[in-house]
Amino acid sequence: MEGCLCLVTGPTSGIGRETARSLAVLGAHLVLACRDTAKGAAVRDDIAAETGNANLEVRKIDLADPASVRSFASEFTAAHPRLDVLINNAGVLSFRRRLTPQGVEAHFAVNVLGPFLLTNALLPVLKASAPSRIINVGSATHFSGHVDLDNLQGEREYRFLRAYSTSKLEILLLTYEFARRLEGSGVTVNCVHPGAIRTDLYNGLPVAFRFVKWFLRDPVTGAAPIVRLASDPDLEDVSGRYFDRLREARSAAESYDVDLAQRLWSACERLASSVP
Ligand SMILES: NC(=O)c1ccc[n+]([C@@H]2O[C@H](COP(=O)([O-])OP(=O)(O)OC[C@H]3O[C@@H](n4cnc5c(N)ncnc54)[C@H](OP(=O)(O)O)[C@@H]3O)[C@@H](O)[C@H]2O)c1
What CA–CA distance (Å, rounded) separates 127 from 57? Predict the structure, then answer.
């Protein structure tokens, strides 16, 4: 990965942090896209000390806030003429229905709309850098999700696992739609389930659920499939696929619904233009 510019969202903990560390070991130039830049700077210093890689840059992004995503993208493209790998890793799992300050439900805002906007805003630089790769971090929980375009933000009914799983089904639908739209561009888009991993993701749950995390695998194991998708030369032309950890797999039947993916895409565009 020497000479490759990789952007990782949510590198301040868990799987994203390990992904950034592993890519630093491989010699990549890394942009750490963090909502808390002080936390990001501490992670940058740790990774630099551990790996000897000084090409680590911290930039501020709040994926819950479309204005922040847009200003991140314009500052990024002003500073960098190329981007080889975009890793949409940041995510949330929220027990209660939470709205962002912009009034968007948190799972939809951070796990779906934020990466949708960021990816679209960075497409020109990704295309200019082809062959380049986009990796969306999904989840096997998408199998229990269901997209209802009239209840996209849990307005009518909210169950936290359903909301999280549906957001992961949505990012998968958008992964496939991006792949269709990017066919022939040299930009690949894939989605990966990293496994059930012991991270802070579970901290937002009541104590009764949180203990589960101690039975899960470590973040290094969760980062491995993402790093592989970012770096394996054999995957350079592979696009529009779902990976369950290290293996390519079939995703839920609903994720292959092209009409649903296009309607979801339009709903994201409408919402993005109506949010300040
Ligand atoms: N852990 C699992 O078992 C598992 C399984 C399947 C999929 N995943 C997926 O893996 C990805 C990484 O999760 P994780 O398990 O590593 O969780 P984590 O340790 O909680 O890390 C989440 C990361 O996302 C960042 N983030 C949250 N909200 C953000 C926002 N509004 N703007 C920018 N960054 C934001 C966090 O930043 P702060 O440090 O500032 O909070 C943190 O860096 C997620 O997409 C998750 O859904 C996880």
Answer: 22
